[in-house]
Amino acid sequence: MPKSTAIHPNSEQSPILPQIEKLLTEQTSVILQAVDEKLSAQNKRIEEGFAAQDKRMEERFIAQEIRILAAVDKRLAKTEERFAKGLDELTKTIDKFLKGLQTSRKNSPS
User: Fold this and answer.
1) CB distance 11 to 17 below 8 Å
2) Dist. CA 92–CA 55, nearest whole Å
3) Which of 43, 92, 96, 107 is 20 to 30 A from 74, comparing alpha carbons?
4) Calpha distance 105→110 (Å, rounded)
5) Cα(69)–Cα(74) distance, integer angstroms
6) Across the chain, which distance is largest between two alpha carbons, in Å?
7) Cα separation of 69 and 77, whole Å?
8) Tens digit of each residue's pLDDT (9 = 90 or more) over 8-58
């Protein structure tokens, strides 16, 4: 039976393996750092996009609130106008009633 040969010789047999491992470790570190930088930049862009979208939504909500408040203010003004008109008519009616009452007292035999 033939003797099997090792595909990867022991580090004792090849002094270059530790150097290769060191270079691979450095390369891996550089690659991971570059990936981290790319992901950080992408994360920053996403966060900026969310912030801009939040700002636009807030501006839309504010504009909608202004429209709603303007409509409520308009209705309130109409209600106040109707109330003032009704109060004025009621005051006139009471004045007429009181004048009529005073006239009837003056004209009635005592």
Assistant:
1) yes
2) 55
3) 92
4) 8
5) 8
6) 152
7) 12
8) 555 456 889 999 999 999 999 999 999 999 999 999 999 999 999 999 999
Q: Which two tokens stand for residue 18?
A: 């530790």
Write out the H or E segment, with its range, that includes residue 109.
none
Q: How many CA atoms lie within 13 A of 43 on its CB side?
A: 6
pTM confidence score = 0.52
Contact of 11 with 18, CB cutoff 8 Å: yes
Q: Is the pLDDT at 6 greater than 70, yes or no? A: no
The arithmetic mean of pLDDT across residues 63-90, rounded, is: 97
Distance of alpha carbon 42 from alpha carbon 60, whole angstroms: 27
What number of CA atoms fall less than 13 Å from residue 3's CA on the CB side? 2
The pLDDT tens digits of the residues spanning 53-76 come to 999 999 999 999 999 999 999 999
| Assigned token pair, 63 | 């504009």
